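Q: Can I see a sequence and its folded structure?
A: Here is a first one.
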Amino acid sequence: MAGSQRYMRYIVFALFALIVFYFISSSSVPSASWPSYGDSTSITPSTPDTPNAAVSAVTPHASTTPNEKTLPPATIPGDRMNATFVTLARNSDVWEIAKSIRHVEDRFNRKFNYDWVFLNDDDFDDEFKKITTALVSGKTKYGKIPKEHWSFPEWIDQDKAAKVREEMKEKKIIYGDSVSYRHMCRYESGFFFRHPLMLDYEWYWRVEPSVELYCDINYDTFKFMAEKKKKYSFTLSLYEYVETIPTLWDATKNFTKHYPQHIAKDNSMKFLSDDGGETYNHCHFWSNFEIGNLNWLRSDAYIDFFTSLDKAGGFFYERWGDAPVHSIAAGLMLNKDEIHFFNDIAYYHVPFTHCPTGEQYRLDHKCSCNPKDNFDWNGYSCTSRFYEMNNMQKPAGYEKEQ
């Protein structure tokens, strides 16, 4: 019996010793020291941009604009232009547009905090608004497209349009049988700049789901456009699918015949045609990236051009894209020096990449694109034509990318 009691005392003593050892050893472990991010001297308890204030302000249903509590303030001083990003998207695109926003914010907009307008042919749901508002450093605005801008106009023969879609489906023409794609092309060609939310702005930067920016942009692109008197810009250019626009140039020539006053004297016809305007060579600026002037799109010249094309019915009887429509309009109604090629904006939209030509620029601006992927000097690109038309010297090193 005595042995059993002695044995129990040993066990209790051993447990006590282990507990004491645990507390002594744990008290000697230093606490974790986390690095601080940003300039701590600029953070004060009274500002809404402090981490603690941001956390305390978070609610299950994040408010929309203005979004002042989730991202730091703009880092580049100076006045801002009356400009916005604009995206046509559906609720199901939320995670793909989230990727695009992160690229735009990280590479550019966190420094400037420009607004973002989202447009949809349906109502945006709370999830889409909550996620996009949290990501954008400027104000976010959500608009529904009027039905009359996303439907067949009354002059379209529905049977004829349906037959065309079926024929294109059989020929396996991309988006050939899609009704919604045609509505999108028509809307981007003639209506997005007339939406009430867009009327507040003078400049726009179009962003689509699943695009990527590969280099830091450290200057205000909108201010650059204004100061250099540019009205339209691009990063990629290529040839359009011939099967989608068989009569687009005929409709264009009909327009120029009736509205000669809208054609600029120093235009870019040489970019669009190899024979002085008799035929179209199918070159166009890829419009999923655009930075442009909204007042130009709202001008009588552009509205007359779009209305003329719309009445011709090619958005539905063929499959006219907004890219050739914008490009032909810019090429004919703007002077050559009003169109700008952003070599320094590294951009990707499946399947093409624009990676700036020039190694030193890529190094200085922390570019992550592979120059071997650059589409600019590919045989199917029209960018060389743009340089030649404007008597511009091609960037050093372009030969290595051909």
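Q: Show me another, different protein.
A: A second, unrelated one:
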Amino acid sequence: MKKFLGALVALGLSGALWAQEASAPAMADAASAVAAVVAASEPAMAVPAPAAASEAAAAAPVAPKFDKGDTAWMMVATLLVILMTVPGLALFYGGLVRAKNMLSVLMQVLVTFSLIVVLWVLYGYSLAFTEGNAFIGGTDRLMLKGIWDSVAGTFAPAATFSKGVVIPEIVFAAFQATFAGITCCLIVGAFAERIKFSAVLAFSAIWFTFSYLPVAHMVWFWMGPDAYTSAAGADALTQKAGLIWQWGALDFAGGTVVHINAAVAGLVGAYMVGKRVGYGRDAIVPHSLPLTMTGAALLWVGWFGFNAGSALEANGFAALAFINTFVATAAAVLAWCAGEALHRGKASMLGAASGAVAGLVAITPACGNVGLGGALVIGVLAGLAGLWGVTVLKKWLGADDSLDVFGVHGVCGILGALLTGVFNSPALGGPSAMGDWVTASMIAPDAYSIGTQFLAQAKAVALTVVWSAVVSYVAFKLVDLTLGLRVTEEEEREGLDIASHGETAYSR
């Protein structure tokens, strides 16, 4: 842990703190929105005179209604994130381990994802996306109660980022479940090939509850745009949001909630589980780069749902997130290959696939918050930063981070979160940030401060790093004291496929 604490200090001194944009809003004052839908659907008890009727119509607020296009897009985006995880992440990780551990990684990803989806429905969604305090939500949506409104005869609405536009809350809940699931699955790559299967599941449940849910609430929960009706009450509404949202940090699709959060947990786990038998002495190489390439390709495809879906509507910001995800990833692939060629004389398939993931990670918090120029710069820097993370930084940290979770997701997540605050500026081609939710107006170009936004991003990154580190340490310690973290040396040498699951990936 001394090395880990030293790494945190170094990250802080180097300014490598990262943050995220608040991109997936929570329910938009669901009770009032449902009431509006109900009022709009109930027959009038009396027919007013034409003049009175027109005056009433002019004065009445427009009731939010579901748009079929937005709803369809969000269901497709949800499916794409599932594709990212199973099979995308599973194959990417599976190809990187030795053949004797292939099935163990596939199992860890599949079963962890399934576990988190169930916990999400039981209590996770409620604690992340209902009103509570600045750190955690409440219990209004335990078991997703209230998602169906029997009085109104319809599903409860969830806010998007546009006034008067909502999607079914049940779709929003499903979309966010995939985020929680893939975040916990990312962590397993840091201690692959030597951890007990039961320990993975126990740790995931604890960490999900005490790290993922609070960070998601702090970054993404707010009262929704329709709640902001007057300047007088705006500050009070903002005080009901998550702490990082109150700070004004931007995270469009999960730079802090997903990537930094998971990467720090993975690094702590790599230290606490210990190094693999033979690490630094024996050759430990990927057993199937074609599978890794296939997984990376599926990750790239699925990431469009991850990033563009975080707009919560089929609109221009979804399109911006889409194209930025496209170009930043391509730029990162080229940058990683170029850096690798300069460093070791050859560009590798593993490097190209890793570069793609590095670009995807870095653009995640920025995808709907920067222009194309900013996305290209972020992509190039991510490719180079990721290469540095898995070579230079990894050696300095001294941890056996098996599949470079921190080197890629941590380093590039921090980079992307910080650069979001820079390239969000209208002066650098960004769309700016929301300045007034009452009037739905953006901060004017001459009023935008890169320094102020960068500071908000850095604060969010710092809080996420410390929060995840503390929770991860406690969670791993609890699991170690109860179940034990690591398999025996004999089981590790035999391979976890046989030792933990009694089967093999390939016939012998």
